[in-house]
Amino acid sequence: MTRFTRAFGPVVLATGLAFGTLAAAGPQDDTLRAAMAGEILNLDYLYTTRREYIVLAQMTDATLFNMNPDTQQIEPGVALSYEFVDDMTIDVQLRDDVRFHDGSPLTAADVAYTYNWVTNEESESHAQALISRWLDRVEVTGDHSLRFHLSAINPLIIRDMAQRVMLRKEGAYHQGDSVDTNAMAIDLIGAGPYRVASFEPGVEVVLERFDDFYGNAPEIGTIVVRNLPDMGTQQAELMSGGINWMFNVPLDVARSLGAQPSIDHLAGPDLRVSFIVMDAAGLAQEDGPMTNLQVRRAMNHAVNKPEIAEFLMGGGASEAIYSACHPVQFGCVQDVMRYEYDPERARALLAEAGYPDGFSLDLWAYRERPVSEAVMADLEAVGIDVNLRYVQLETLNQARAQREIPAYIGTWGSSGVADTALIARVHFSDTSDRHLSGDAQVVEWVMAAEQTADQDARLALYSQAITRIAEQAYWVPLVSYSADYLVTSDLEFPLDNDGVPRLQNASWK
Fold first, then answer.
1. 431 shares a domain with 366
2. What Pfam families does this protein map onto (predicted)?
3. Contact 437, 469 (CB under 8 A)
4. Residues of the chain whose pLDDT is less than 50?
5. Same domain, 235 and 291
6. What pLDDT is stored for residue 5 in this prediction?
7. What is the pLDDT of residue 313?
Protein backbone atom coordinates (compact mmCIF):
# COMPACT_ATOMS: atom_id res chain seq x y z
CA MET A 1 0.00 0.00 0.00
CA THR A 2 1.26 3.43 -0.82
CA ARG A 3 0.43 6.35 1.38
CA PHE A 4 0.67 10.00 0.48
CA THR A 5 -0.49 13.00 2.47
CA ARG A 6 -0.80 16.57 1.25
CA ALA A 7 -1.78 19.30 3.69
CA PHE A 8 -2.00 22.99 3.03
CA GLY A 9 -0.89 26.01 4.97
CA PRO A 10 -3.15 28.59 6.60
CA VAL A 11 -5.96 30.10 4.56
CA VAL A 12 -6.78 33.81 4.71
CA LEU A 13 -10.40 34.47 5.64
CA ALA A 14 -12.54 37.06 3.91
CA THR A 15 -13.54 40.26 5.59
CA GLY A 16 -16.98 41.79 5.11
CA LEU A 17 -17.30 44.37 2.35
CA ALA A 18 -20.35 46.28 1.22
CA PHE A 19 -22.01 45.62 -2.14
CA GLY A 20 -21.56 48.13 -4.95
CA THR A 21 -24.44 49.77 -6.73
CA LEU A 22 -25.54 49.39 -10.31
CA ALA A 23 -24.87 52.61 -12.19
CA ALA A 24 -22.40 53.77 -14.81
CA ALA A 25 -19.42 51.49 -15.28
CA GLY A 26 -16.37 52.58 -13.36
CA PRO A 27 -14.67 53.04 -10.00
CA GLN A 28 -17.03 55.85 -8.99
CA ASP A 29 -19.81 53.28 -8.59
CA ASP A 30 -17.58 50.25 -7.98
CA THR A 31 -19.20 48.54 -10.99
CA LEU A 32 -17.21 46.69 -13.60
CA ARG A 33 -19.13 46.04 -16.81
CA ALA A 34 -17.78 43.27 -19.03
CA ALA A 35 -18.84 42.23 -22.53
CA MET A 36 -19.05 38.65 -23.78
CA ALA A 37 -19.99 37.67 -27.32
CA GLY A 38 -21.08 34.10 -26.54
CA GLU A 39 -24.72 33.85 -25.51
CA ILE A 40 -25.10 33.12 -21.78
CA LEU A 41 -28.17 30.97 -21.15
CA ASN A 42 -27.16 28.69 -18.27
CA LEU A 43 -25.16 29.66 -15.17
CA ASP A 44 -24.54 26.08 -14.02
CA TYR A 45 -21.04 25.06 -15.09
CA LEU A 46 -21.85 21.41 -14.38
CA TYR A 47 -23.96 21.68 -17.54
CA THR A 48 -21.84 23.98 -19.70
CA THR A 49 -18.39 24.02 -21.29
CA ARG A 50 -17.67 27.26 -23.18
CA ARG A 51 -15.00 29.75 -22.10
CA GLU A 52 -17.63 32.35 -21.11
CA TYR A 53 -19.09 29.88 -18.64
CA ILE A 54 -15.67 29.10 -17.18
CA VAL A 55 -15.14 32.83 -16.55
CA LEU A 56 -18.51 33.10 -14.79
CA ALA A 57 -18.00 29.93 -12.74
CA GLN A 58 -14.67 31.26 -11.44
CA MET A 59 -16.69 34.08 -9.86
CA THR A 60 -19.83 32.32 -8.67
CA ASP A 61 -18.64 28.86 -7.66
CA ALA A 62 -16.31 27.08 -5.30
CA THR A 63 -14.34 23.88 -5.81
CA LEU A 64 -12.57 21.52 -3.43
CA PHE A 65 -9.16 22.77 -4.54
CA ASN A 66 -7.77 25.67 -6.54
CA MET A 67 -5.11 25.64 -9.23
CA ASN A 68 -2.51 28.38 -9.04
CA PRO A 69 -2.31 29.58 -12.66
CA ASP A 70 1.28 30.82 -12.29
CA THR A 71 2.83 27.81 -10.55
CA GLN A 72 0.29 25.14 -11.62
CA GLN A 73 0.33 23.95 -8.01
CA ILE A 74 -2.74 22.71 -6.15
CA GLU A 75 -3.88 25.08 -3.41
CA PRO A 76 -6.68 24.83 -0.82
CA GLY A 77 -10.22 25.67 -1.74
CA VAL A 78 -13.17 24.33 0.19
CA ALA A 79 -10.84 21.44 1.10
CA LEU A 80 -7.89 22.01 3.40
CA SER A 81 -6.07 18.75 2.70
CA TYR A 82 -6.20 15.43 0.91
CA GLU A 83 -4.59 12.07 1.61
CA PHE A 84 -4.12 9.06 -0.64
CA VAL A 85 -4.87 6.27 1.82
CA ASP A 86 -4.02 3.83 -0.94
CA ASP A 87 -4.03 3.91 -4.74
CA MET A 88 -7.82 3.71 -4.89
CA THR A 89 -8.87 5.77 -1.86
CA ILE A 90 -8.55 9.47 -1.06
CA ASP A 91 -9.56 11.13 2.21
CA VAL A 92 -10.46 14.84 2.03
CA GLN A 93 -10.79 17.26 4.95
CA LEU A 94 -13.00 20.33 4.48
CA ARG A 95 -13.04 23.78 6.01
CA ASP A 96 -15.83 24.41 8.49
CA ASP A 97 -16.53 28.06 7.59
CA VAL A 98 -17.82 27.83 4.00
CA ARG A 99 -21.31 29.09 3.20
CA PHE A 100 -23.48 28.94 0.13
CA HIS A 101 -24.95 32.16 -1.24
CA ASP A 102 -28.27 31.46 0.53
CA GLY A 103 -26.42 31.49 3.87
CA SER A 104 -26.49 27.74 4.53
CA PRO A 105 -23.24 26.06 5.63
CA LEU A 106 -21.40 23.82 3.18
CA THR A 107 -20.76 20.36 4.63
CA ALA A 108 -19.41 17.00 3.56
CA ALA A 109 -22.94 15.91 2.65
CA ASP A 110 -23.10 18.65 0.00
CA VAL A 111 -19.77 17.61 -1.52
CA ALA A 112 -20.71 13.92 -1.59
CA TYR A 113 -24.06 14.76 -3.17
CA THR A 114 -22.38 16.87 -5.88
CA TYR A 115 -19.84 14.26 -6.93
CA ASN A 116 -22.22 11.32 -6.71
CA TRP A 117 -24.74 13.29 -8.78
CA VAL A 118 -22.19 14.19 -11.45
CA THR A 119 -21.30 10.52 -11.98
CA ASN A 120 -24.95 9.42 -11.94
CA GLU A 121 -26.07 8.71 -15.52
CA GLU A 122 -29.38 10.39 -14.72
CA SER A 123 -27.59 13.70 -14.19
CA GLU A 124 -26.36 14.01 -17.79
CA SER A 125 -23.80 16.50 -16.48
CA HIS A 126 -21.19 17.80 -18.90
CA ALA A 127 -18.60 16.87 -16.27
CA GLN A 128 -19.76 13.27 -16.10
CA ALA A 129 -17.44 11.74 -18.70
CA LEU A 130 -14.36 13.32 -17.13
CA ILE A 131 -15.11 12.48 -13.49
CA SER A 132 -16.46 8.99 -14.22
CA ARG A 133 -13.05 8.12 -15.64
CA TRP A 134 -11.77 7.75 -12.10
CA LEU A 135 -14.56 8.08 -9.50
CA ASP A 136 -16.72 5.24 -8.18
CA ARG A 137 -18.45 7.01 -5.27
CA VAL A 138 -17.95 9.49 -2.42
CA GLU A 139 -18.66 8.58 1.19
CA VAL A 140 -19.31 11.02 4.06
CA THR A 141 -17.06 10.20 7.01
CA GLY A 142 -17.80 13.26 9.17
CA ASP A 143 -19.42 16.68 9.05
CA HIS A 144 -16.40 18.01 7.19
CA SER A 145 -14.60 14.89 5.99
CA LEU A 146 -15.08 12.55 3.04
CA ARG A 147 -13.66 9.46 1.43
CA PHE A 148 -13.38 9.21 -2.36
CA HIS A 149 -13.50 5.65 -3.66
CA LEU A 150 -11.81 5.49 -7.04
CA SER A 151 -12.59 3.24 -10.00
CA ALA A 152 -9.23 3.78 -11.70
CA ILE A 153 -5.83 5.33 -11.19
CA ASN A 154 -5.68 8.76 -12.82
CA PRO A 155 -2.90 11.33 -12.41
CA LEU A 156 -5.27 14.29 -12.90
CA ILE A 157 -7.77 13.56 -10.14
CA ILE A 158 -6.93 16.55 -7.95
CA ARG A 159 -6.76 18.84 -10.99
CA ASP A 160 -10.21 17.65 -12.03
CA MET A 161 -11.50 18.44 -8.54
CA ALA A 162 -9.96 21.89 -8.78
CA GLN A 163 -11.22 22.77 -12.23
CA ARG A 164 -14.36 20.90 -13.22
CA VAL A 165 -16.69 20.15 -10.30
CA MET A 166 -18.50 23.15 -8.82
CA LEU A 167 -20.05 22.34 -5.46
CA ARG A 168 -23.82 22.25 -5.02
CA LYS A 169 -26.16 21.98 -2.06
CA GLU A 170 -27.40 18.53 -1.14
CA GLY A 171 -30.59 17.87 -3.10
CA ALA A 172 -30.00 20.79 -5.49
CA TYR A 173 -31.30 18.83 -8.48
CA HIS A 174 -34.03 16.90 -6.69
CA GLN A 175 -37.55 17.83 -5.66
CA GLY A 176 -38.81 14.73 -3.87
CA ASP A 177 -38.59 11.91 -6.39
CA SER A 178 -38.38 14.23 -9.40
CA VAL A 179 -35.15 15.39 -11.02
CA ASP A 180 -34.55 18.83 -12.49
CA THR A 181 -31.20 19.12 -14.25
CA ASN A 182 -31.94 22.81 -14.92
CA ALA A 183 -32.49 23.64 -11.25
CA MET A 184 -29.31 25.77 -11.05
CA ALA A 185 -29.37 27.15 -14.59
CA ILE A 186 -31.10 30.42 -13.73
CA ASP A 187 -31.28 30.63 -9.92
CA LEU A 188 -27.73 29.53 -9.15
CA ILE A 189 -26.75 28.94 -5.54
CA GLY A 190 -22.97 28.72 -5.46
CA ALA A 191 -20.29 29.40 -2.86
CA GLY A 192 -17.88 31.62 -4.80
CA PRO A 193 -16.72 35.20 -4.25
CA TYR A 194 -19.72 36.65 -6.11
CA ARG A 195 -23.42 35.80 -5.86
CA VAL A 196 -25.93 36.16 -8.68
CA ALA A 197 -28.05 39.25 -8.00
CA SER A 198 -30.02 38.95 -11.26
CA PHE A 199 -29.86 37.09 -14.53
CA GLU A 200 -31.64 37.75 -17.81
CA PRO A 201 -30.55 34.92 -20.13
CA GLY A 202 -28.92 36.14 -23.30
CA VAL A 203 -28.85 39.73 -22.02
CA GLU A 204 -27.11 40.33 -18.69
CA VAL A 205 -25.80 38.77 -15.49
CA VAL A 206 -25.38 40.96 -12.41
CA LEU A 207 -22.96 39.67 -9.76
CA GLU A 208 -22.52 41.14 -6.28
CA ARG A 209 -19.62 40.50 -3.95
CA PHE A 210 -20.51 37.81 -1.38
CA ASP A 211 -19.71 39.05 2.11
CA ASP A 212 -19.49 35.54 3.60
CA PHE A 213 -17.05 34.16 1.03
CA TYR A 214 -14.50 32.01 2.83
CA GLY A 215 -11.44 33.15 0.84
CA ASN A 216 -9.84 36.40 -0.21
CA ALA A 217 -12.55 38.96 -0.91
CA PRO A 218 -12.54 40.51 -4.39
CA GLU A 219 -11.92 44.25 -4.50
CA ILE A 220 -14.69 45.23 -6.92
CA GLY A 221 -18.19 45.14 -5.45
CA THR A 222 -20.35 44.58 -8.54
CA ILE A 223 -19.64 42.95 -11.89
CA VAL A 224 -22.16 43.16 -14.73
CA VAL A 225 -21.60 40.76 -17.62
CA ARG A 226 -23.42 41.84 -20.77
CA ASN A 227 -24.12 39.68 -23.82
CA LEU A 228 -22.95 41.72 -26.80
CA PRO A 229 -22.51 39.34 -29.77
CA ASP A 230 -21.37 42.02 -32.21
CA MET A 231 -17.72 43.06 -31.93
CA GLY A 232 -18.51 46.51 -33.33
CA THR A 233 -21.09 47.06 -30.59
CA GLN A 234 -18.54 46.04 -27.98
CA GLN A 235 -16.03 48.53 -29.38
CA ALA A 236 -18.59 51.34 -29.34
CA GLU A 237 -19.60 50.53 -25.76
CA LEU A 238 -15.97 50.47 -24.65
CA MET A 239 -15.25 53.86 -26.21
CA SER A 240 -18.39 55.42 -24.73
CA GLY A 241 -17.79 54.01 -21.25
CA GLY A 242 -20.65 51.50 -21.35
CA ILE A 243 -18.25 48.62 -20.63
CA ASN A 244 -14.81 48.34 -19.03
CA TRP A 245 -13.64 44.99 -20.39
CA MET A 246 -13.81 42.79 -23.49
CA PHE A 247 -11.90 39.66 -24.44
CA ASN A 248 -11.23 37.41 -27.42
CA VAL A 249 -10.42 40.62 -29.27
CA PRO A 250 -8.99 40.29 -32.80
CA LEU A 251 -5.41 41.49 -32.87
CA ASP A 252 -5.97 44.32 -35.35
CA VAL A 253 -8.91 45.64 -33.30
CA ALA A 254 -6.95 45.34 -30.07
CA ARG A 255 -4.00 47.29 -31.46
CA SER A 256 -6.20 49.97 -32.99
CA LEU A 257 -8.37 50.68 -29.95
CA GLY A 258 -5.48 50.16 -27.57
CA ALA A 259 -3.91 53.30 -29.04
CA GLN A 260 -6.75 55.37 -27.57
CA PRO A 261 -5.69 57.29 -24.42
CA SER A 262 -8.53 55.89 -22.28
CA ILE A 263 -8.19 52.27 -23.41
CA ASP A 264 -5.46 49.70 -22.77
CA HIS A 265 -4.63 46.68 -24.93
CA LEU A 266 -3.49 43.77 -22.76
CA ALA A 267 -1.93 40.66 -24.28
CA GLY A 268 -1.19 37.59 -22.21
CA PRO A 269 -0.41 33.92 -22.76
CA ASP A 270 -3.03 31.33 -23.64
CA LEU A 271 -2.74 27.55 -23.41
CA ARG A 272 -4.11 27.12 -26.92
CA VAL A 273 -1.57 26.06 -29.54
CA SER A 274 -1.77 25.52 -33.30
CA PHE A 275 -0.11 22.84 -35.39
CA ILE A 276 -0.21 20.92 -38.66
CA VAL A 277 -1.11 17.24 -38.32
CA MET A 278 0.22 15.12 -41.17
CA ASP A 279 -1.10 11.74 -42.33
CA ALA A 280 2.13 9.85 -41.65
CA ALA A 281 0.23 6.56 -41.45
CA GLY A 282 -1.12 6.92 -44.99
CA LEU A 283 -4.73 6.65 -43.87
CA ALA A 284 -5.98 9.07 -46.52
CA GLN A 285 -3.41 8.30 -49.21
CA GLU A 286 -1.39 5.11 -48.95
CA ASP A 287 2.26 5.84 -49.76
CA GLY A 288 1.39 9.52 -50.20
CA PRO A 289 3.96 12.29 -49.57
CA MET A 290 2.99 12.61 -45.89
CA THR A 291 4.23 9.08 -45.21
CA ASN A 292 7.78 10.18 -46.09
CA LEU A 293 9.82 11.39 -43.11
CA GLN A 294 11.94 13.70 -45.24
CA VAL A 295 8.81 15.40 -46.58
CA ARG A 296 7.44 15.92 -43.08
CA ARG A 297 10.76 17.38 -41.95
CA ALA A 298 10.83 19.61 -45.01
CA MET A 299 7.41 20.99 -44.13
CA ASN A 300 8.66 21.75 -40.62
CA HIS A 301 11.58 23.72 -42.02
CA ALA A 302 9.37 25.51 -44.55
CA VAL A 303 7.06 27.37 -42.14
CA ASN A 304 8.23 30.66 -40.65
CA LYS A 305 6.71 30.18 -37.20
CA PRO A 306 8.38 33.14 -35.43
CA GLU A 307 7.00 35.51 -38.07
CA ILE A 308 3.48 34.09 -37.70
CA ALA A 309 3.72 34.50 -33.92
CA GLU A 310 4.93 38.07 -34.12
CA PHE A 311 2.78 39.51 -36.88
CA LEU A 312 -0.39 37.40 -36.92
CA MET A 313 -0.85 36.15 -33.36
CA GLY A 314 -0.01 39.06 -31.09
CA GLY A 315 3.70 39.56 -30.77
CA GLY A 316 5.22 39.00 -27.32
CA ALA A 317 2.41 36.88 -25.89
CA SER A 318 2.52 34.40 -28.80
CA GLU A 319 5.58 32.26 -29.45
CA ALA A 320 6.79 29.72 -31.95
CA ILE A 321 6.57 26.20 -30.52
CA TYR A 322 8.61 23.12 -31.35
CA SER A 323 6.95 20.36 -29.29
CA ALA A 324 3.52 18.82 -29.78
CA CYS A 325 2.11 20.57 -26.70
CA HIS A 326 2.24 23.92 -24.90
CA PRO A 327 5.65 24.72 -23.38
CA VAL A 328 4.21 25.43 -19.91
CA GLN A 329 2.40 22.10 -19.71
CA PHE A 330 3.74 19.40 -17.42
CA GLY A 331 5.55 16.84 -19.55
CA CYS A 332 6.00 19.13 -22.55
CA VAL A 333 9.74 18.73 -22.90
CA GLN A 334 11.54 21.33 -25.01
CA ASP A 335 14.81 19.47 -25.57
CA VAL A 336 13.59 17.92 -28.81
CA MET A 337 14.64 17.99 -32.44
CA ARG A 338 13.96 21.53 -33.70
CA TYR A 339 13.31 22.51 -37.27
CA GLU A 340 14.25 26.14 -37.63
CA TYR A 341 12.89 28.17 -40.52
CA ASP A 342 15.11 27.21 -43.44
CA PRO A 343 13.48 27.16 -46.92
CA GLU A 344 16.69 25.99 -48.61
CA ARG A 345 16.92 23.00 -46.29
CA ALA A 346 13.23 22.28 -46.93
CA ARG A 347 13.77 22.24 -50.70
CA ALA A 348 16.80 19.96 -50.30
CA LEU A 349 14.83 17.50 -48.16
CA LEU A 350 12.02 17.42 -50.70
CA ALA A 351 14.54 16.59 -53.42
CA GLU A 352 16.04 13.82 -51.27
CA ALA A 353 12.55 12.43 -50.76
CA GLY A 354 11.99 12.22 -54.50
CA TYR A 355 9.98 15.40 -54.90
CA PRO A 356 12.40 17.88 -56.50
CA ASP A 357 9.48 19.64 -58.17
CA GLY A 358 7.24 19.42 -55.11
CA PHE A 359 3.78 17.85 -55.04
CA SER A 360 0.14 18.80 -54.63
CA LEU A 361 -1.34 18.88 -51.12
CA ASP A 362 -4.85 19.41 -49.82
CA LEU A 363 -4.28 21.32 -46.58
CA TRP A 364 -7.42 21.62 -44.47
CA ALA A 365 -8.03 24.44 -41.99
CA TYR A 366 -10.93 25.97 -40.07
CA ARG A 367 -9.61 28.80 -37.90
CA GLU A 368 -7.48 31.97 -38.20
CA ARG A 369 -7.52 32.22 -41.98
CA PRO A 370 -4.56 34.66 -42.12
CA VAL A 371 -2.42 32.05 -40.33
CA SER A 372 -3.61 29.33 -42.72
CA GLU A 373 -2.77 31.51 -45.71
CA ALA A 374 0.68 32.30 -44.30
CA VAL A 375 1.38 28.59 -43.84
CA MET A 376 0.16 27.94 -47.40
CA ALA A 377 2.46 30.66 -48.78
CA ASP A 378 5.48 29.26 -46.93
CA LEU A 379 4.82 25.74 -48.22
CA GLU A 380 4.30 26.97 -51.76
CA ALA A 381 7.59 28.90 -51.55
CA VAL A 382 9.47 25.58 -51.26
CA GLY A 383 7.56 23.96 -54.14
CA ILE A 384 4.50 22.37 -52.53
CA ASP A 385 1.33 23.17 -54.49
CA VAL A 386 -1.20 23.77 -51.69
CA ASN A 387 -4.95 23.59 -52.15
CA LEU A 388 -6.19 25.29 -48.98
CA ARG A 389 -9.46 23.65 -47.92
CA TYR A 390 -10.75 26.28 -45.48
CA VAL A 391 -13.99 24.89 -44.03
CA GLN A 392 -16.20 24.87 -40.94
CA LEU A 393 -14.90 22.75 -38.06
CA GLU A 394 -17.77 20.28 -38.38
CA THR A 395 -16.88 19.68 -42.03
CA LEU A 396 -13.23 19.11 -41.16
CA ASN A 397 -14.19 16.72 -38.35
CA GLN A 398 -16.36 14.68 -40.70
CA ALA A 399 -13.68 14.48 -43.38
CA ARG A 400 -11.05 13.46 -40.82
CA ALA A 401 -13.31 10.75 -39.41
CA GLN A 402 -13.72 9.39 -42.96
CA ARG A 403 -9.93 9.39 -43.44
CA GLU A 404 -10.02 11.95 -46.24
CA ILE A 405 -7.46 14.44 -44.90
CA PRO A 406 -3.74 14.23 -45.74
CA ALA A 407 -2.88 17.25 -43.55
CA TYR A 408 -4.77 19.85 -41.52
CA ILE A 409 -4.09 22.86 -39.34
CA GLY A 410 -5.52 22.21 -35.89
CA THR A 411 -5.65 24.04 -32.58
CA TRP A 412 -6.11 22.82 -29.02
CA GLY A 413 -6.67 24.69 -25.76
CA SER A 414 -6.39 21.79 -23.26
CA SER A 415 -9.34 23.23 -21.30
CA GLY A 416 -6.89 25.57 -19.61
CA VAL A 417 -5.03 22.66 -17.95
CA ALA A 418 -1.24 22.85 -18.00
CA ASP A 419 -0.64 19.14 -18.42
CA THR A 420 0.43 17.34 -21.59
CA ALA A 421 -2.22 14.68 -20.91
CA LEU A 422 -4.90 17.10 -22.09
CA ILE A 423 -3.46 17.30 -25.61
CA ALA A 424 -1.74 13.92 -25.89
CA ARG A 425 -4.74 11.78 -24.95
CA VAL A 426 -6.83 13.30 -27.75
CA HIS A 427 -4.25 13.41 -30.52
CA PHE A 428 -2.16 10.30 -29.81
CA SER A 429 -4.52 7.58 -28.64
CA ASP A 430 -5.56 4.63 -30.79
CA THR A 431 -9.25 5.50 -30.34
CA SER A 432 -8.96 9.04 -31.74
CA ASP A 433 -9.41 9.95 -35.41
CA ARG A 434 -6.99 12.82 -34.74
CA HIS A 435 -4.17 10.30 -34.41
CA LEU A 436 -2.67 10.18 -37.91
CA SER A 437 0.85 9.01 -37.09
CA GLY A 438 0.16 5.28 -36.89
CA ASP A 439 2.93 5.02 -34.28
CA ALA A 440 1.94 2.36 -31.76
CA GLN A 441 4.92 3.16 -29.54
CA VAL A 442 3.80 6.77 -29.06
CA VAL A 443 0.31 5.53 -28.18
CA GLU A 444 1.77 3.10 -25.65
CA TRP A 445 3.78 5.82 -23.90
CA VAL A 446 0.87 8.30 -23.84
CA MET A 447 -1.57 5.74 -22.44
CA ALA A 448 0.95 4.51 -19.87
CA ALA A 449 1.37 8.08 -18.62
CA GLU A 450 -2.36 8.17 -17.87
CA GLN A 451 -2.24 4.97 -15.85
CA THR A 452 0.14 6.09 -13.16
CA ALA A 453 0.03 8.81 -10.51
CA ASP A 454 3.84 8.80 -10.23
CA GLN A 455 4.81 12.22 -11.59
CA ASP A 456 8.41 11.21 -12.31
CA ALA A 457 7.21 8.23 -14.32
CA ARG A 458 4.68 10.41 -16.17
CA LEU A 459 7.37 12.95 -17.04
CA ALA A 460 9.63 10.21 -18.41
CA LEU A 461 6.83 8.74 -20.53
CA TYR A 462 5.75 12.06 -21.97
CA SER A 463 9.38 12.95 -22.64
CA GLN A 464 9.75 9.80 -24.72
CA ALA A 465 6.51 10.43 -26.61
CA ILE A 466 7.08 14.13 -27.32
CA THR A 467 10.70 13.50 -28.34
CA ARG A 468 9.69 10.79 -30.79
CA ILE A 469 6.89 12.92 -32.26
CA ALA A 470 9.47 15.61 -33.00
CA GLU A 471 12.07 13.22 -34.39
CA GLN A 472 9.52 11.63 -36.71
CA ALA A 473 8.01 15.03 -37.55
CA TYR A 474 4.45 13.79 -37.16
CA TRP A 475 3.37 17.40 -36.58
CA VAL A 476 4.49 20.82 -37.61
CA PRO A 477 4.07 22.63 -34.27
CA LEU A 478 3.25 26.24 -35.08
CA VAL A 479 2.60 28.82 -32.36
CA SER A 480 1.05 29.36 -28.96
CA TYR A 481 -1.87 31.75 -28.81
CA SER A 482 -2.15 35.19 -27.30
CA ALA A 483 -5.11 36.22 -25.14
CA ASP A 484 -5.97 39.77 -26.17
CA TYR A 485 -8.11 42.11 -24.06
CA LEU A 486 -9.26 45.70 -24.21
CA VAL A 487 -9.93 47.44 -20.89
CA THR A 488 -10.57 50.98 -19.78
CA SER A 489 -7.43 52.60 -18.41
CA ASP A 490 -8.86 52.87 -14.88
CA LEU A 491 -9.08 49.07 -14.59
CA GLU A 492 -6.26 46.89 -13.28
CA PHE A 493 -6.70 43.43 -14.81
CA PRO A 494 -3.97 40.86 -14.08
CA LEU A 495 -3.21 38.25 -16.75
CA ASP A 496 -2.58 34.63 -15.79
CA ASN A 497 -0.34 32.10 -17.53
CA ASP A 498 -3.17 29.71 -18.38
CA GLY A 499 -5.04 32.30 -20.43
CA VAL A 500 -8.21 32.06 -18.32
CA PRO A 501 -9.55 35.56 -17.51
CA ARG A 502 -10.34 35.98 -13.82
CA LEU A 503 -12.51 39.03 -13.37
CA GLN A 504 -12.65 38.40 -9.63
CA ASN A 505 -8.99 39.50 -9.45
CA ALA A 506 -9.61 42.86 -11.12
CA SER A 507 -9.31 46.13 -9.21
CA TRP A 508 -9.49 49.86 -9.84
CA LYS A 509 -6.27 51.81 -10.31
1. yes
2. SBP_bac_5
3. yes
4. 1-23
5. no
6. 41
7. 86
